[in-house]
Write a structure and sequence with these properties.
Elements lengths: L1 H23 L3 H5 L1 E8 L5 E6 L6 E5 L3 E6 L4 E7 L6 E6 L7 E6 L4 E5 L4 E6 L6 E6 L6 E6 L3 E6 L8 E5 L1 H4 L5 E6 L6 E6 L4 E5 H13 L20 E4 L4 H10 L5 E7 L5 E7 L3 E5 L59 H15 L3 H14 L4 H14 L4 H15 L4 H13 L3 H14 L7 H15 L5 H4 L3 H4 L11 H8 L6 E3 L12 E4 L5 E5 L4 E6 L5 E6 L5 E6 L6 E5 L3 E7 L14 H12 L3 H8 L24 H4 L3
Antiparallel strand pairs: 1-28, 2-3, 3-4, 4-5, 6-7, 7-8, 8-9, 10-11, 11-12, 12-13, 14-15, 15-16, 16-17, 18-19, 19-20, 20-21, 22-23, 23-24, 24-25, 26-27, 27-28
Helix pairs in contact: 6-7, 7-8, 8-9, 8-10, 9-10, 10-11, 10-12, 11-12
Organism: Steatornis caripensis (Oilbird)
Keywords: Repeat, WD repeat
InterPro entries: DCAF8, TPR-like_helical_dom_sf, TPR_rpt, WD40/YVTN_repeat-like_dom_sf, WD40_repeat_dom_sf, WD40_rpt
């Protein structure tokens, strides 16, 4: 009994210590003191990939110099350096689970995957099945002898080191769905359920696959008596129904034609799961960083519209309401389906004094045209008061003024949320119509504006209404309008990306069933390299980190999406950010031939030369950079100064509001 008691106590203490470590190893004070600890030198080319071992006492790096180095990062020592046998840049490096950190896997631009035994510094397996650059390797603790690769030939391959054959099998062939031009760029396995594999590729869609379902489907196909018999119309699906789920930022499929015209490429450069496996983080090349909730999924908001509310004489603009009618939001793939059902609308509770002060600070920032500051303050208040319609309505106004990529879609989401909380929120109704117009849903914008005029007749002839009405009608009757592009979400969402892409019917269905994001993180720039990472920081995933083309890396609070820290991590571009598994310790790399280590610096260190103080200025510059002509960006990278890239407002292609009335421009 005594032995059992001691064991139980030790177990409780260990669990308690683990919980304490998970909660406190990355905290806000630590983040605000994060600074450069050391630079690890040893490579002679760009360092394209980093990987911690499970215990966190080893760090592996891969480089353009075709070498991999294993470091003791805690003592800043190089333990091992070996040529991998690759003949081109290394893009991915992974420790094989349960190998005692003895087996290391590398993937490179020579289309090869190599397996190395570090104890003897030898390459023990060489796989040459891919026909284009290998961009990422993934491993899974539940499958200790198995790993996967993603390459620009559009294939996801699976390897089993128990097999004598030096070949791999194709797990997923994206070319069967998207045509020969599709490129797989990244992949990762869910740490809590190793049966789920996320894949990023060309275009805005991120794919989540059930590996077990795929294997069971293929096994049953082989065992089926009619497996070799096919009729003229018979078609075997490469993946079973339910084995794939797609995720996409709701506005991006609509933006694709515009981006393609401006030679702006959308591609997922990195995907990773949260430590608990319930969230998926995506660094979308050519756009922002997105977080998808895998538990509470939501359809894209672009096809939603609220139904009814009381007359405009009732409560407006997010203030106290009684006995309203629910907006009854429903999904409909072509336009809007308006609910007829009644429901109770909760009265809007007054904000507590400290949140009222935050709201007033946000309003003051808005009045001073400090849009990002206003957004961050509203977001801080929204986190504490998630059922306050006024906060969502005000934040929507700030998004619409700032006009960064995706801002009008976030504003649309906030308007819908505000209306769901208070169906008689006048400004949210009007802003919703303006957002639809800015997102090129012109017919839906007209429908929404007509709905607004019916609900709030005293506003029907306001200057804002008249201006939006003119804009909508001009767009509807413009000779340059493409009716298919402007009406309804379905056709746009199913659009191929042009050129020789061949989108299959199965792919179109999967895209139409995509789920939308939960959070969006802005400030960085990801247009120059296609290996740029974004990661969760902290065992509870409290923060989001991402590299950037401006040589900095950015840190956001996950729940508020507010930017809290920017640090200069490279002389050119930060590509890799790998947080330590259990400490507030971060490894980064990029174009410089070094690995940099970051941790909270002592309070006695008052000067940190790598802190970017003007985070707002850095973020605005990156938004301009993302919307710049690709030639200008190339010249800028070569050292030429381009005037158009360093002046003017951020936000690129979004049209300026020609005129606004009171109903839209002021927060409540």
């Amino acid at each position: 009994f005594a032995v059992v008691s001691v064991t139980l106590v030790c177990f409780v203490q260990e669990r308690g210590a683990l919980g304490f470590e998970r909660h406190y190893h990355v905290t806000d004070p630590f983040i605000r003191r994060l600074g450069l600890e050391a630079e690890l030198q040893g490579h002679s080319g760009c360092v394209n990939c980093l990987e911690w071992n499970e215990k966190g006492d080893l760090l592996a790096s891969g480089s353009d110099d075709q070498h991999t180095i294993v470091w003791d990062p805690l003592h800043h020592k190089k333990l091992l350096s070996m040529h991998t046998g690759h003949t081109a840049n290394i893009f991915s490096v992974k420790f094989l689970p349960h190998s005692g950190d003895r087996i290391l896997i590398t993937g490179a631009a020579d289309s090869k995957v190599h397996v190395h035994d570090l104890t003897v510094k030898e390459t023990i397996h060489m796989f040459g099945d891919h026909t284009n650059r290998v961009k990422r390797i993934a491993t899974a603790p539940m499958w200790p002898n198995t790993f996967w690769s993603a390459a620009e030939d559009g294939l996801i391959r699976q390897y089993d080191l128990r097999e004598n054959s030096k070949r791999s099998e194709v797990l997923i062939d994206l070319t069967e769905y998207c045509g020969q031009l599709v490129e797989a760029k990244c992949l990762t396995v869910n740490p809590q359920d190793n049966n789920y594999l996320a894949v990023g590729a060309s275009g805005p869609f991120v794919r989540l696959y059930d590996i077990r379902m795929i294997h069971n489907h293929r096994k049953s196909m082989k065992q089926s008596p009619s497996a070799g018999v096919h009729t003229f119309c018979d078609r075997q699906k490469p993946l079973p129904d339910g084995a794939a789920q797609y995720y996409v930022a709701g506005h991006l499929p609509v933006k694709l034609p515009d981006y393609n015209n401006r030679l702006r490429v959308l591609v997922a450069t990195y995907v990773t799961f949260s430590p608990d496996g319930t969230e998926l983080l995506v660094n979308m090349g050519g756009e922002q960083v997105y977080l998808f909730d895998l538990t509470y999924k939501q359809r894209p908001y672009t096809f939603l519209l609220p139904k009814k509310c009381h007359t405009s004489g009732e409560v407006q603009n997010g203030k106290t309401s009684t006995n309203g009618v629910s907006n009854g939001i429903h999904l409909h793939s072509n336009g809007f389906r308006l609910s007829e059902g009644r429901a109770h609308v909760s009265p809007q509770v007054e904000l507590p004094p400290y949140l009222e002060r935050i709201k007033q600070q946000a309003n003051e920032a808005f009045a001073c045209q400090l849009w990002t500051q206003a957004i961050q303050l509203y977001s801080k208040a929204v986190q504490k008061a998630p059922n306050n319609a006024m906060l969502y309505g005000n934040r929507a106004a700030a998004y619409m003024k700032r006009k960064w990529d995706g801002d009008h879609y976030d504003a649309l989401r906030d308007c819908l949320k505000a209306i769901s909380l208070n169906p008689c929120h006048l400004k949210a109704h009007f802003r919703l119509a303006r957002c639809l117009f800015e997102l090129k849903y012109v017919a839906e914008a007209l429908e929404c504006l007509d709905d607004f005029k019916g609900k709030f007749p005293e506003q029907a002839h306001s200057s804002a209404c008249d201006a939006l009405d003119r804009d909508i009608n001009a767009a509807l009757f413009s000779k340059s309008d493409n009716a298919e592009d402007k009406k309804g979400g379905g056709p746009i969402r199913l659009r191929a990306t042009g050129r020789k892409d061949s989108i299959s019917e199965d792919e179109m269905v999967l895209r139409e069933r995509s789920y939308d994001y939960k959070f969006r993180y802005c400030g960085h720039c990801n247009t120059t390299t296609d290996i740029k990472e974004a990661n969760f920081f902290g065992s509870n995933a409290q923060y989001i980190v991402s590299g950037s083309d401006d040589g900095s890396f950015f840190i956001w609070e996950k729940e508020t999406t507010n930017l809290v820290r920017v640090l200069q991590g490279d002389e050119s571009i930060v590509n890799c950010l790998q947080p330590h598994p259990s400490y507030c310790f971060l490894a980064t790399s990029g174009i410089d031939p070094v690995v940099r280590l970051w941790n909270p610096r002592p309070e006695s260190e008052t000067l940190n030369g790598r802190v970017v103080v003007d985070m707002e200025g850095a973020s605005q510059a990156n938004q301009r950079r993302m919307n710049a002509d690709p030639l200008e960006v190339m010249l800028l990278n070569m050292g030429y100064r381009i005037t158009g890239l360093t002046s003017g407002g951020a936000g690129g292609s979004d049209d300026e509001d020609s005129s606004e009335g009171q109903v839209q421009c002021r927060p409540s």
